[in-house]
Structures
1.
Amino acid sequence: MTSTFVRSNPGLLPASRSAVAKAWPAAAAIVLTIFLWWLATTVLSPEYSLLRQTAPQRVLPAIVDLYQRGVLVSDAALSLWRLVIGLAIAMVIGVPMGLLIGLNTRIERAATPVVQFLRMISPLSWTPIAIALFGIGNQPVYFLVAAAAVWPILLNTVSGVHAIDRGFLDVARSFHATRAEQLRVVIIPAVRDHVRTGLRLGLGTAWIVLVPAEMLGVRSGLGYQILNARDQLAYNQVVAIILVIGVLGSAVDFVASRLPGRTFNNRADG
């Protein structure tokens, strides 16, 4: 009966084979990585080395323990919340500034040296100033995350404005569209994909900055938990939190890559 079903649905088997063919390289790479991790920390490391604490058979129970204690979920949620707030601040600053710079040649010439200078400064180097301005707490973390994410968003917005087909703007002007109408109907839809790309790039940088930023005065978050586990010499928990940071970062990047975005050309075709 199974063979009859397969013969009557010939598209099912190739599709399943295609899914397996796409999935197995990634699955094999993950298994190989875990094996090399186990080999380095269990077989090759000295008997009393701290590396033995970071072996998979000790790290995975540590993840379960952190979860059962309620630490993992609450601190991961706080870290994600700080990331969202910092990204929102970066969007509020970066997108309007990018539109302004991209639409005005004189402003672009004036702003380019300043932007290039500021974006080359490590966001973490602003830490003393952020603490002096905002004190200890969430505000310095928001500042550092926004400082990390704002430049990719701004520069990609400028790039999106430059990529607009000027014919669309000429058509809008021929219909006597105001500047606000051009911005709403032509420019913003056209730069949407570029803004999404900038957000994704900024998100990666912001996530990297977030963890050390949480080691600078807050008493919650994944970065703080790394310091807390280190002070207790619980290196299995340190690696457990590092794994969680990697998984969450990959998940956030995946969500960002699936954000809706349509270019003006696609909108016009529709």
2.
Amino acid sequence: MRVLIVDDEKLARDRLRELLNDIGGYTVVGEAMNGTEAVEKSSELNPDVLLMDIRMPGMDGLEAAMHLMGMENPPAVIFTTAYDQHALDAFDVNAVDYLLKPIRKDRLAKALSKAHKLTAKQIAEISQARPEPASRTHISVHLRGNIRLVPVPDILYFLADSKYVVVRTAAEEHLIEDSLVNLEKEFGDRFLRIHRNALVSTGSIKGIEKNPAGTWQISLKNYDKKLDVSRRHTAQVRRWARNRPMAG
């Protein structure tokens, strides 16, 4: 069984590697220090199972697991955690394998022997119960069986297009299967609804102006195309503009 160890602390990674050597029958194919590395290395190395810490800087283990669900053949995940009992109850209810730190050899061996693949529903329910609920740091894009992670701060806007949503950065665009309603719920503090089919990053807005036709448009930093503001959302957008000075 091929194992990827994911933890931001080197001592913890070394400890897991030693325990795996003692148990025998497992090959450590790599290590990662955060969730972003875990997703990238999983796509590259195709491990059978991840031993993954939950609390890590940047992308945490729960978000990484959610992105991994998009792989053609996702690995099993065993979480390692120092969470308190309230959070651990969520793992028990959802029948997800986890190891409480400090990790014991017999407990690790037992978890590995029954490691199973997670479902998106399990991860979503545990994410809601964790002590520090948070929105995703990245959006995952599926390209020919691989996962491409797009940092949320790089996204200029989300645009609904048929059954897909266009994710636009200054350099490129991708299609994801999601809904603007869900994205607005998750990122509503960072994105502004300007149209029934568009959410714009507030940090990317350069200005708002009227075009010759008398309707309002938004201009963005580092992007030439202007986006139309619908009549229905004009008042909300202008109110936002009045309350927040915009950079040039």
3.
Amino acid sequence: MRTAIVGAALLVLGGVAAVTGLLPWSDALALWDRVWPILLFVIAVTVVTELASEAGVFTVIAQQTARWGRGRAWLLWLLVVAVAALSTIFLSLDTTAVLLTPVVIVLARHAGLDPLPFALTTVWLANTGSLLLPVSNLTNLLAQHAMGDPSPLQFAALMWAPAAVAIILPMVVVAVISRKQLRVRYVTGEEEGVEDPVLFWISAAVVAALVPLLVSGIPVWLPASAAAVVLITVFAVRRRDVLRFGLLPWQLVLLASGLFLFIEALHANGLGTLLARVSGSGESPLDLLRLSLTGMVGANAIDNLPAYLALEPAAGSPVRLAALLIGVNAGPLITPWASLATLLWHQRLSSFDVRIRWRRYVLLGLLVAPVTVVVATLALAATA
């Protein structure tokens, strides 16, 4: 509810700016034309993943992953790394934070293992793994537009090297700090059956069909919306009780809308000029590091979405926008509020009675985030 309150307050402030002339109406309308497809995609893909979870798709994936682990905790963890990375890349970081986190907790407990290494893996990969494709992160969708709408493959061609670094480096740290927990063996417990096979197979087919469509170059809101309509229709016939207002990520949409409008109002009144001085210009390795580290600091100070929006005008080119994405996507590992995905992740941990000390989380983030951002930015400079 705090998310909704903050979003509503920002919307009011942005609306006041528009009414009083601080934000020109032409700028506000141009902003709406830019962001409505992004918000629609967020709504649609959230509905798809929530309904697929209700159908048991992710539970079956977890159970199959446990079998593939062959009783070795380290192998099971590597499989979780693969699933979390793919979930983030193709279905967005919020999907990993919201839906995969409970799956891996259940998976770890099902195998009698400490859930913390697996939970830390999901939250770090939800952030650092979201660089490769436009659909991986809301910031990427914004950057894709600012880059001139490159295709998903063109976007990936620019981002592949920093994306690889941002996945590998944090996972090396998890492997090192959790080496004792990952050396043990496990025995899987009794598996859950699928409650409704028809719903399961239709949901699995929809998700399987959606993934390639999201990287096909079609505007992502179209296949995501179509997939949501199909699943809503099927659930209306077979499990109507699942269809509730809570399926919609209304708090996230309200927050994102408020941030969009508020930051646009600040830009109309000189914020961009100030940030351009801080983040510099140019595309040398040092210039790109200056921008990406500014993005990292901004994300951990105020959240990655407003940090991106504030710095986007100072980026100015595809390579600089890529550096900014490294900072705001791979950098939000330090403070709890650095990304909405982290807050959602912690909410899921609490609901499963899994405790993590924020002090430890912050210290680990201080170790991992700057190194990841620096090395990923240098990888971008070497390959762009």
4.
Amino acid sequence: MPRIQCPRCHRPETRCLCGLIPSLPSRTRVLVLQHPSEVNHALNTARLAALGLANAQLIVGETFEGLETLLNPPGYRACLLFPGEEAQVIQAYATDDRPWLLVVPDGTWRKARKLLHLNPVLAALPRVTLDGAPPSRYRLRKAPGPGALSTIEAITQALEVLEAPTSFQALLKPFDALIEGQIAAMGEAVYQRNHTQ
């Protein structure tokens, strides 16, 4: 018998995270473009981020209809949160008077790069990267490199820079609960054996 899912957070009803998801206002608009392979992932942090921000939108796909329009909402300037040689640290963008549209590709590094390849208008956006971010709290996946964060952590960190001194730490409450729940489900011994090396 299939487990009943919460229609909002897509977690099993017995592990619903909706009570922990805030509704945070932000001057920055966040647009998450999620690769389809991430939609049913047990640790879908992009969905939690989009639910927790009043000024956020999540769209699933590999190519996106009307992307040019999505990337140019009136009154906003768009930037892509994605590392690369031409990426500037996000702190350089924090002093701009006009609000930002922060575009965040969501998927494995390979899938995120594919989204950029399939959507040249996306790849053409100015890129920003995080500098001095705290280590990831994502204790269930091995980070591909230093400074690698989950989508929700990257969005939180970016917003804290762009909208300082406002705190967006409440966005991480459902994420922390999700991680703790996964560790509890696998059992401490299994977690210690497989994830703490």
